[in-house]
Structures are given as C-alpha cells and as structure tokens.
Amino acid sequence: MPVKPAIMPCRLYDNAPAAIDFICKAFGFTRLAVHADGATVHNAQLAYDGNVVMLSSGSRDGRNQFDMTPIGNLNGQSPMCICLVIDDPDAHFAVAKAAGARIITEPHDNDYGGRSYEARDLEGVVWSFGNYDPWADAANTAANASVEQA
C-alpha cells in the first residue's frame, strides 16, 4: 500500500470544543475523532476532503509536553495560516460568512493563479481557502521540462 504524504497542523485552543464546532460549521470540516474529558479536548481530528487538522485544549498553566500554547494575546495577530485547496472558494466563502467567520478578504483572483479568500476562526487563526493547486503547477513544470529535454 503506498504511503499517503500528509502534513497535519496541530493547534491548541483556549476553548477547543467551541473551536471544533466553529471549524466544522463555518469551514466544512467533519469530526474524524474527538477524545475529550468534558470540556477538555485531548485530541481532535477534523477532516476535510482527505486532509486532517488536529487540535486540543490548552492547559491552564500554558505548559504541556511539547511546550505549545494557545495563541493568547498577540494583539490580534495570528502565528500561522492554514491553507486548504478546495474546488469552489466562492461557495465555501458563502457558508463561512453565513456561519459568522471573520472575513479578512472576500474571494479574489490571485496573481499566481487560482482564486481564494481568507478568514479567521474564533481564536484568531488565519485560514486561507482557494482553488490554486501547487501540485498541478509542479506537475506542469515537470512535464514542460521533459518536453524541452526531448
């Protein structure tokens, strides 16, 4: 069986149960697994079209075995952006906006190709949803290089 390459962002949230609900409702993820004791989420795996993001609750003292912490007070800035390749950014945007996502940019065409929009989740993490596929671009570049060498 071939190995499926994957990078799974893992985040801590101050209110992980609310983050799970919001990410599923606004961004279209589904709960793959949620391991929790009451309001403390030890590990949640949320899926979107074969991709997974993981999240859990931040500890009250801000310490855990990986020395990770929720965003906390970063003066409204996000320490990261999670990007997903999707088929229809405009339709996805409409659902996210209706669900109360804080929109940063409405759907727009990008100079490098594709169309996307950006939004923040409940705790300020930036999410980018667009139809630019870097794998397709890499495949086209490789195919063109092969034709030029022939």
UniProtKB/TrEMBL annotation:
Coiled coil: none annotated. It holds the Pfam family Glyoxalase. SUPFAM superfamilies: Glyoxalase/Bleomycin resistance protein/Dihydroxybiphenyl dioxygenase (SSF54593). It comes from Sphingomonas paeninsulae. InterPro entries: Glyas_Bleomycin-R_OHBP_Dase (IPR029068), Glyas_Fos-R_dOase_dom (IPR004360), VOC_core (IPR037523). This is Glyoxalase. Residues 4-132 form the VOC domain. The lineage of its organism: Bacteria, Pseudomonadati, Pseudomonadota, Alphaproteobacteria, Sphingomonadales.
